[in-house]
Ferritin-like domain-containing protein
Amino acid sequence: MSVTDAETTTRRSAVPAGAPAIITDLYDAFAQRNMSLVQVTWEQQRLHESRRWSVVDMLSAVDLDALTPTDRNLVWNAGRAELTTKPGADRLERQSRNEVDRWRDKNPVVANIMEACGTWSRYWNEEEAHHETVFLRLAEVTGMETVADETFIDFRQVFPDDDMLRTLVLLAFSEITAAVNYGACQHVIQDPGLRRIFKQVAADEIQHRNYFVAFAKALVDSGEYHAKDAFAVGHLFLREDGELGGSAREKVEERGTHVNWWDHLETGEGDFRPEALEKKEQLICGALKKITGIEVNSREEVEDTWMDLVGS
């Protein structure tokens, strides 16, 4: 064997052989396994790169002349909905920074969790930019009603800050709603290129849900945040006429400070409207179990558990 051959066989790689994945036990990763922020954010980068896709390539595969009225309505609503996600990512980065400062001296592990969350928000922001751009571009080139500049700016209003655990749980549930909606849309879309876009966006939203669940679980695992706040958000979504009903509710709140995309879906009589409320409810219950370790299987159990936790 030559010297060159020996060097080739012993050459080390900076990239591990295993597939990238979300660190689902983030509190233990910092507190027990002594992972550093450099190591955790490296895993975030690996996963992000493995999932990157091109808006240009996706759009080039869509047959614009083959889109049905249903396709066009779904694209138009999706583009407007995705306009509201950048403010959420911007808020997450800012709020995470505030939490880092709050916990840095009192509980460095929680500070690390929040720094990992704020750092990951850059990837969330980028992926949501893909979603927004792909749908808005499709709407524009197919002659749909243009999003006015005033509407664009209104939809960019930043959400008000809240308790960090409640914020993460709300984001997880919002991603569940989006993922189920996009998944349902796939079944009525005829064009393969457009169907692929909705499938990709749904997969992205599920990944975002998994990240929010992991960050929320880490906060509960730390003992500094309480499960009752996660269940409070669950009740907010699942109660009668709750957030899960979106624009179909009898009364939609006047937010004033920001725009929630689920309040603004517009469909005419006979238009396809993704619902799947039972599936969303079960996914929300599953997320609550992952975050808190408490098993619930219905909206009634979510409410009962929330009331028990409030009274304890």
Notes: The radius of gyration is 21 Å. The longest helix spans residues 108-141.
